Each structure stands twice: as C-alpha cells, then as structure tokens.
Amino acid sequence: MSSFTKLIVVALAAVSVPFVSAQTYTNCNPLDETCSADSGLSKWSFYSDFTTGDSAFEDWNTTAGTVNSTSSGAAFVINEKGDAPTIKSNFYFFFGYVEVKMKIASGTGIISSIVFESDDLDEIDWEGIGTYNYEIETNYFGKDNTTTYDRATYPNVTTPADTFHTYAVDWTSSQIEWFVDGVSVRTLAYEDALDGKNFPQTPMTLRIGIWAGGDPDNGEGTIEWAGGETDYSDAPFSMYVESVKIINYNPADTYTYSDKTGDYTSIKLANTTSSGTTTSSVSSLSSSTTSSSSGSSTGASTATSTATSTGTISSSNRTISSNSTSSTPSPSSSTPSSSTSTASSASFTAAAANVLGLTMNPVVALPIAALFFFL
Predict the structure, then answer these.
(1) What are the residue numbers of the active site?
(2) Distance between CA atoms of residues 119 and 371, nearest Å
(3) 41 Cβ neighbours under 8 A, 6+ residues apart
(4) For the chain, is the Cβ count within 10 Å smaller at the N or the C terminus?
(5) What domains lie within the chain, and their CATH numbers?
C-alpha cells in the first residue's frame, strides 16, 4: 500500500467507530482534574523474560483476556471474536529506553501493539499489522490530539510475523527515536511535534497486546487501515513477546502532575527513604533533575499503583475508562538474574551510558553499561 493511500485510510479510520474492547484509556486525566500520584519505577533498569514462567508477569497487570508464558515467550492469542489479551506495566517510567523482542501475529486485520501511554494520553506506538508481513508502523500522539493523521511511518521489516525482531524506543525530553534490531528507523524532535505541544512528555505505562482491527463490527476506515476484514475461522492468531527491557531515565517512587499543563517540567518526582522524602522535577531539555527535600519522619512505605481490571489497547480510539480499579504492589527493587542478557545493541549501550552521564564510544561503554544493567 502506498504512503498516500495509507494516509487516506488512517484518516478514514479516525472517523470510524473501532472495536469497543480495543482502546487506549486513562482512569483520570490530570489536564481536567486532580489525580493521585502515579507509582513509578524506582530503579534504573527493569527486565522481564517471558519464557521463564508465570513469575515473569509479577510486575504486569493483565487488563484483558489471558496471557501465558511459553517457550517462545508471552503468548497473546485471539481464538474468537472479542478476544484482545493485553498486559500493562504496574509502574510508570519517565523518559527512558524500552526494548521489546516480539513476533507479531499473522492474520488479516490482526494488530500486535506496543504502546507507551500516559494519564493525559500522550502516546508512543509500535503497531504490527498482520496483513502486511513486511513492515511495522510507528506512531505518536500528544494529549489525545487527533486533529491530523499524518504521523505514522511504515519502516520495512523482514517477515515480522515469522521472525522475532527487537523493537526499541529511546525517549527523552528532546527527541524520540525508534529502532528495529538496533537500527534507527525514525527520529522525532521535540520542536517537530507542533513545537512540542504534540510531543509525548509525561510519565508512561507500557501496554502490550493484540486486537482485531479488522473485526466486522469496526468502522470501514479502521478495517481498511488494518488491511481487511478478519475471518475468525482462521483463528487462532498468536503474537509472542520474548522479553522486555526498560531503562528509566528518571527513577522515582511516584510521579505527580503539579498543574494542568501536561508539560514535562510540571512533573514532580518523589523518592522516600528512611530519612525523608525527596522531590524533584525535570528542569530542561535533558534528563537532568533539580532536587529539594521535604521533611518526613516516617520511613519508606510500600508503594501501590492503581490499575484497571479491564481494558485493551488501540491507537484508533482514546477514551477515559470507567472501569473498576484495584490496588496492586509496585515492582520490587530486585534486579535481573545473572542469566539475563546484557545490552543487545549499540543503541541500548548508548542509552545506558546516557543514564550514567557518560559520553563515549559504544565499544568502551559496553562493559560499563553491562555492569550498570545488573546493578
């Protein structure tokens, strides 16, 4: 499909009504109301190996359907109409490097999604359309702004439905860069996203799932964007995620919106220690922070995060969810085991070096980055 045709199809999809169980959502939009603090990833690095069993899901909330660990990784399977299995991280991160090793599902109209989503509906996407076994879609949204539909790109990928590929994003306050197997395929500068107004810049959760964009009940535009109508007699449709790596450039126990601007400089980071609570904010177009302390006589308490009990993902529709919520523990401070692989690409090494405040050749940085990843 040509780029021009895709633009028309995406525009049509925007005015269509998508499959209701496949949507991005927020429980509380801080641009409209005062919301509770988001539970953050309080350590620099995080890793899930979904081939190791159910324990790999301890820092994830299954928001729809069932997702199981297999020898190929987490299995997201559509067996029938209405299936849309999805998981969501139990924590937020604030700028960072995220790497997902995934094999998308094959099948007409079947969408395999990796979505960064914030409370005020900033969004960064990977979408694998099973109809097209030769490309992947990248996309982004700022504050749910859907006034234009010309933001998607479609880099070529070799048989993504037959082969595992590593899809990565390096997200900073100055730019977003997408990588496939360590090769940069797209860069978005802050100023190129409507002078920053459409630039994703608030704390995100990571959501991974599969859904049927080609469901016959979807609007014509959505079905066309998904590459055609899904025939459920061809099920099952299976997507696999082997592993997820995250480096959080601004670790914190919690993130709080201090006003209703949705600007990254308005986000307050809080970390609780035995001596008190330290708050900070990102002050410039970098990952640096400025800190101030507020006295607290209490020690660190167990952080909790609020997660919806239902809900799945799609870049076609964004609504505020009215689903019930439950409180779940934040991720533990444990680090990956010694069997965890180290940085798998120069981009991951550079990201780790960036966190450490280093500027060096990746060959030099690799041993340091590897040590850092296991801290």
Answers:
(1) 123, 127
(2) 33
(3) 89, 91, 92, 93, 246, 248, 251, 252, 331
(4) C
(5) 3-250+308-320 (2.60.120.200), 342-375 (no CATH)
